[in-house]
Specification:
Blueprint: H1 24-45, E1 53-56, H2 63-71, E2 76-79, H3 82-91, E3 99-102, H4 111-117, E4 120-124, H5 127-140, E5 144-149, H6 163-171, E6 179-185, H7 194-213, E7 223-225, H8 232-237, E8 242-245, H9 247-250
Parallel strand pairs: 1-8, 2-3, 3-4, 4-5, 5-6, 6-7
The chain binds pyridoxal-5'-phosphate.
């Protein structure tokens, strides 16, 4: 697949400036705008929009606002921190069809929490964590969709496995029968230079395609979770099947991103 639209720019200049959504109508509007941008990116790349899932990311957002997003149609929400996600899950038990995806780095000692309530975990990056999650899930009688997080930008600060280690890692996953491996997840380089961002996404697609050739039968590598508010259109052009979008739906966050992505250098 040649780069569909090499001129597509990042939107990192908008970072921190999105207005806060305060009503159901605001959420409906923001979701429609994001979906329309997703559809346009699909069109440029000759892809079917039905193959790309929008995962709204609600980190730092309070319960009242999450309930508005729910009323606007959100049924699966991404959270970076497991404790925050667990609190929200507990607080919104009355919304029986609201599900949670944990998308941030997880310490092994918190695997127990994820096993209890999450529907999806996108930041699997060690065998020790896989083993602990699997054990806790067996205990709960649950299973979990997981994505292997890959460091596609070679930045020391990023979580995720180096691309060269993913093949070996994946070979070891079938023993953990409560984990349903769906694909790979990454955070691209946080840069205003679109071509450097695009290179991360291309690298992920090529890695996924290569890994597929000799992945164990029980390991599905169909999914590529990549792209956020500032770069999801480029990610879709390069094959993303899940985009994780926070600010463009909920509005700018008060908490600085360095809280979630240690060592983050701002886009210039
Ligand atoms: C916060 C977050 C996102 C969404 O970022 P936005 O800029 O708000 O769209 C995506 N992925 C991860 C892992 C995150 O922590």
């Amino acid at each position: 697949m040649p780069p569909a639209s090499p001129e597509t720019a990042t939107r990192h200049d908008q970072h921190g400036r999105y207005p806060r959504a305060e009503t159901v109508e605001d959420f409906a509007h923001n979701l429609a705008v994001v979906r329309q941008r997703m559809a346009a990116a699909c069109l440029r790349a000759g892809r079917d929009p039905a193959q790309v899932r929008l995962l709204p990311v609600s980190k730092t957002i309070d319960e009242a606002h999450i309930r508005l997003a729910y009323q606007a149609g959100c049924r699966l929400l991404g959270e970076n921190k497991v404790q925050e996600a667990h609190h929200k899950w507990e607080a919104m038990q009355d919304l029986g069809d609201l599900h949670w995806s944990v998308i941030g780095h997880l310490q092994t000692n918190k695997a127990k929490l994820v096993a209890r309530f999450a529907s999806e975990f996108q930041a699997l990056d060690s065998l020790r964590l896989a083993e602990t999650l699997d054990r806790r899930l067996q205990h709960e009688g649950r299973s979990l969709d997981v994505f292997v997080q890959v460091n596609s930008s070679d930045e020391d600060s990023k979580f995720g496995l180096p691309p060269s280690e993913v093949a070996g890692f994946i070979q070891a996953l079938p023993q953990f029968t409560a984990l349903r491996v769906r694909g790979l997840m990454t955070l691209a380089l946080f840069s205003a230079e679109a071509e450097r961002v695009r290179a991360c996404f291309v690298r992920m697609r090529e890695l996924r395609d290569r890994l597929r050739q000799d992945a164990p039968a029980s390991v599905a590598l169909d999914e590529l979770s990549m792209g956020m508010s500032g770069d999801f259109e480029i990610a879709i052009e390069e094959g993303a099947t899940v985009v994780r979008v926070g600010q463009a739906i909920f509005g700018a966050r008060a908490v600085p991103d360095s809280h979630y992505w240690p060592g983050l250098v701002s886009a210039g």
